[in-house]
Description:
Oligomer: single chain
Strand order of the largest sheet: 1-2-3-4-5-6-7-8
Order of helices and strands: HHHHEHEHEHEHEHEHEHEHH
Number of strands: 8
Low-confidence stretches: none
Shape: globular
Largest sheet: 8 strands, parallel, barrel
Helix content: 40-55%
Strand content: 5-15%
Radius of gyration: 18 Å
Amino acid sequence: xxxxxxxxxxxxxxxxxxxxxxxxxxxxxxxxxxxxxxxxxxxxxxxxxxxxxxxxxxxxxxxxxxxxxxxxxxxxxxxxxxxxxxxxxxxxxxxxxxxxxxxxxxxxxxxxxxxxxxxxxxxxxxxxxxxxxxxxxxxxxxxxxxxxxxxxxxxxxxxxxxxxxxxxxxxxxxxxxxxxxxxxxxxxxxxxxxxxxxxxxxxxxxxxxxxxxxxxxxxxxxxxxxxxxxxxxxxxxxxxxxxxxxxxxxxxxxxxxxxxxxxxxxxxxxxxxxxxxxxxxxxxxxxxxxxxxxxxxxxxxxxxxxxx
Length: 308
């Protein structure tokens, strides 16, 4: 299976250099990464809003090694929020953040990440939007959930992400659903050991449906992160059975993937949010997109064989 190999490569400096230097990389990265700067991503936000879509914005980067880098990540989000405020787009765009960017893995990382993310959540709330804490590998989740719980005391709309392939996630989903939280459910995109996560695709899909049912029947706000047509149909049926209105849940898909489906769901009256990543430190994010779908890898392989 290629997925685990690609995920391992996402941590390799040698592979980072090779991929960055490949002649077709820029073309393929542009499919998944909306740009490198706020100025480049603003037109994409405006275009999405004009089409009836919403976005969640991710300033890409993770595995930082210094406190100064964690502060730079915080400031990048604050700059983004200031631009959204100036453009009046606060209600159409939320933020997604990885706590690893905010210093979670450094010394006293839990406290540092909380201190860095709080002003971002405060600034987002001031312009009428919110923040979702992305899930990373399983070793980081207890800290992420604790930070999420702390932020929700003052900013209850703060969301978080759960990953269907982890054994722990059904219990996490029940707790979050009971607490009325905003929760994005995804399958999971990190290389996790068999001791903590399902390895078989069919088992992951079954877990996804079980967890989605918990969220739909709970008190929170489910955010369905999937491009799988079957899971999207199941989500619609579970929402109907739970008596949810169209504005009581939403679909989320990645920028550059199944764009026609984004528009179809929005046209049907669903809330449809596009996960839009931008920034210069794109490598880890890009490699996980390749790992998630073989077609993405084939597209990249063809491109790197193409000379400029």
